[in-house]
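User: Here's a chain of 394 residues. Predict its fold as tokens.
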Amino acid sequence: MFPSSSIARVLALCGIGLFSACQQGPVPDTLLAERPLSLRTVKWNAKEVPTGKIAAVADFSEDTVVFSEQGALVFTAGLLLNTDPATKNWKAATVIPAGDRAGSWLIGISDNGRVWRLRDRALMEDVSDRYGLRNDSVLEAVAADPTTRVVFGLAGDLAVADGEKVTRYSVPMHGLSGGSGRVAGLSDGGVAVFEASTGKLTRYAVDAPVAALIDTAGRLVVASTDTLYRESGTTLTKLFVSSEAPLRGLSLSSGVVWLQVGDALAVLAEDEIRIAPSAMLPSDGKLIGSSTGDVWVLSRSTLRRFGEDSGGGADEETWQSTVQPVFTRLCSLCHMPGGSANLDLSTYKSWDARRMQLRLRLIEQKPSPMPPKGAGVLTQDELAAVQAWLDAKK
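Assistant: Prediction complete.
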């Protein structure tokens, strides 16, 4: 638990010192090319175990936790492993840096505002006190970065925990999404970006905003009811306009930006937007990111999962479950589209086309090791799983 003396309150209202800046609204269009998207339905509940009405879901590596009226249902590799029925009323779930900085925690937020983390793939443990939130009702939580800072959304406040202290800011934001040290959300009829390390708040004037997120390049992406924008410098650039169907949601899944257009799903790429034929998604559908790059769609207490069909079949599914989590943890900083390495390795197709080269770099460490020194290392289990996948098509 964080000592009370470490909890600070900082005012971060527009116009007060360094904590706020107000940016210009959208600038002229840079509309992207539109391409078709092939979807596949992903079976996540192999034995179709009854789950009851679902309120939230989060996944991490092979584990998926479904938060429902039955409690917290823990699935591993598609099979129900455990059920913790102690708490049955939930409103949110996500993955955050662990409170002890040792890895990540999969958490759920109950209706009474308590924060629970999955422990030993079996039980949900109340960890609210560890963040100095004993007397608060938490509404939502996001990871501002993958290893250090967690931002909790309270009623009118943000609480930033960095593993040592909790700092509070009077910033009213909701619909939070985080990444690259930043948190995006809806605020005062527009969109705001909060810098978790400094408390700086930047506001963007956007008419009828629906959702906002921070992509893996650290840029703000915003959906209004009819327009998709992406941050360029200190302004927003228009990327896509939907004249026939409203934009309903955004979600980031292991680097993939998913968008709901009317009743269809779409994927935002660097220089194009790929739109699937109608998937008959309901208007109340909520998009939830997945660590696999797929997207969850939660509607009327039922849950479905979709992915982009790259034609890889079972081999692609194995890549998603074994290789992609390693990529997300160790490689994504440099190897996303537009990354510093100038080599996009964010997709199954990019790995499949380079199996021989990747085996040399990752397994044999020739001509130089990957990941590079200082970027982290694969565990023995990860190394074995990646090698098995790389060798599967020899």
